[in-house]
C-alpha cells in the first residue's frame, strides 16, 4: 500500500508539473478565432510564396498574422518586437518613409511630358467616393467612411496615414484590406479591363512622349512640394517625402543614395510595415461584422476605381484619335508600381 501511495504521489506531481507547463504556454488561451486567423495567415503566405501575388507584401503580413494569433508569445504586446513595428505606424513615421523610397524609384517624366494623363489619376478614384457613400449609408461615421473609402486609392501608406488621422480603431481592417487588394490586383483588375475595352483598343501602341529635360525633372519635385505644403498641409508629410525621394533620384549627384533608397531602404521599411499590419490581425479585434463590410467595400472601391479609370482613358482615346491605349486608365488607381505592371 505504501508503494502504491508513493506511486500515486509521483503521478500527482507529474500531473501538476504538466499542468504548470501547459499554463506557461499559449494553448489554454487559444480560441477558434485564433485558429481561423492562423489559417488566414497561411493563406496569405500561400498566395505570396506559391502564387507569387506580391510576396513583397503578403509574406510579412501572413507570418505576423499567424504570430499575432498565437497567445503567449508577447511579440505583439507592449514591449514586444512586433509592437515596436506598430508604433512606427501609430506615430505616422513609416508611411512617409515608404513614400521616400517610392519617390526615389519613380520617373515623373511621362507625366510631365503629357500632363493630361493626370486626369486618369482623378478619374480612377471614383471608387473612393462610391465606397465612402456606401459606408455612410451602412451606418459608419463620416470619419470612418472616409477611411474606408481611401482603400480605393490603392495606396497602403496613404490608407494607413488617413486612417490614423480619422479612425485609428479601424486600422487593422483597413490596412489589411488595402494591402491585400493591392497584392491581388493581378486578379481583380484584368477582368474589368477586358470587359470595358475592345481587342483593337488593347493593341494600340502609344508613341513615346516628348523629351523631358533634366531641369524640368529637377524643378517638378520642388514646385510640387511648395504647392502641397502651401495648399494641402494635411498630406504634406507624405508628398514632401515622395518629392524628396524623386529629387534625390533626378539630381544624379546622389546616385548611390537614390539606389539605396529605392532598394535596400524601401525593402526594410516595407518589411517593418507589413509586420506592423499583420500584427494587428488579432481574432479578438479583427473578426467582427464590420470587418466583412469594410473588406467588401474595399473590393467595390477597387472595381469601380479600375472601371472609371479605363472608361476615362477610352474617352481620351477617342478624343485623341486613337493615340491612347485605354488600358493605362487602370493604372490611375495608384498602387505604384503594381497597377502599372497590370496595365502593361
Q: Give the overall pLDDT as a whole number.
A: 88
State the distance separating the first and last CA atoms: 83 Å
Approximate strand percentage = under 5%
Radius of gyration, Cα only, in angstroms? 24 Å
State the low-pLDDT regions, or none: none
The geometry reads as: elongated
Run of helices and strands = HHHHHHHHHHHHHHHHHHH
Structure annotation, total helices: 19
- Biggest sheet features: none
Tally of DSSP β-strands: 0
What's the helix and strand layout?
Layout: H1 2-23, H2 32-50, H3 55-68, H4 81-90, H5 94-103, H6 109-113, H7 118-123, H8 126-137, H9 142-149, H10 156-166, H11 171-183, H12 185-195, H13 199-202, H14 214-231, H15 236-251, H16 255-278, H17 283-286, H18 289-319, H19 338-343
Give me a quick take on this structure.
By secondary structure, the protein is mainly alpha-helical. It contains 19 helices and no strands.
Which descriptors apply to this entry?
mainly alpha
Structural description of this entry:
The chain is mostly helical and 344 residues long. The chain has 19 helices and no strands. The protein has helices spanning 2-23, 32-50, 55-68, 81-90, 94-103, 109-113, 118-123, 126-137, 142-149, 156-166, 171-183, 185-195, 199-202, 214-231, 236-251, 255-278, 283-286, 289-319, 338-343. The model has no long low-confidence stretch (mean pLDDT 88).
Amino acid at each position: 500500500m505504501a508503494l502504491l501511495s508513493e506511486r500515486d504521489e509521483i503521478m500527482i506531481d507529474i500531473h501538476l508539473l504538466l499542468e504548470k507547463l501547459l499554463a506557461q504556454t499559449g494553448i489554454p488561451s487559444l480560441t477558434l478565432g485564433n485558429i481561423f486567423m492562423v489559417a488566414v495567415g497561411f493563406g496569405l503566405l500561400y498566395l505570396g510564396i506559391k502564387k507569387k501575388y506580391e510576396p513583397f507584401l503578403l509574406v510579412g503580413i501572413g507570418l505576423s498574422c499567424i504570430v499575432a494569433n498565437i497567445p503567449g508569445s508577447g511579440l505583439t504586446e507592449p514591449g514586444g518586437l512586433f509592437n515596436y513595428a506598430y508604433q512606427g505606424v501609430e506615430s505616422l513615421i513609416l508611411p512617409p518613409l515608404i513614400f521616400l523610397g517610392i519617390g526615389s524609384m519613380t520617373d515623373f517624366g511621362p507625366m510631365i511630358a503629357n500632363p493630361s494623363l493626370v486626369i486618369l489619376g482623378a478619374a480612377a478614384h471614383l471608387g473612393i467616393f462610391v465606397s465612402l457613400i456606401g459606408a455612410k449609408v451602412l451606418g459608419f461615421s463620416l470619419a470612418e467612411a472616409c477611411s474606408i473609402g481611401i482603400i480605393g486609392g490603392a495606396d497602403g501608406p496613404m490608407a494607413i496615414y488617413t486612417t490614423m488621422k480619422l479612425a485609428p480603431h479601424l486600422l487593422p481592417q483597413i490596412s489589411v484590406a488595402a494591402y491585400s487588394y493591392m497584392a491581388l490586383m493581378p486578379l481583380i483588375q484584368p477582368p474589368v479591363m477586358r470587359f470595358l475595352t475592345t481587342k483593337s483598343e488593347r493593341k494600340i501602341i502609344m508613341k513615346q512622349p516628348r523629351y523631358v529635360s533634366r531641369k524640368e525633372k529637377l524643378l517638378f519635385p520642388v514646385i510640387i512640394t511648395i504647392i502641397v505644403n502651401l495648399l494641402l498641409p494635411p498630406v504634406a508629410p507624405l508628398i514632401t517625402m515622395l518629392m524628396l525621394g524623386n529629387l534625390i533620384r533626378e539630381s544624379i549627384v546622389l546616385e548611390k543614395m537614390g539606389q539605396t533608397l529605392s532598394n535596400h531602404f524601401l525593402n526594410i521599411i516595407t518589411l517593418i510595415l507589413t509586420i506592423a499590419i499583420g500584427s494587428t490581425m488579432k481574432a479578438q479585434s479583427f473578426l467582427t461584422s464590420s470587418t466583412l463590410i469594410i473588406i467588401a467595400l474595399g473590393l467595390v472601391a477597387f472595381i469601380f476605381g479600375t472601371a472609371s479609370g479605363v472608361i476615362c482613358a477610352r474617352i481620351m482615346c477617342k478624343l485623341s484619335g486613337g493615340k491612347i491605349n485605354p488600358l493605362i486608365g487602370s493604372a490611375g488607381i495608384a498602387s505604384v508600381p503594381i497597377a502599372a505592371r497590370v496595365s502593361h
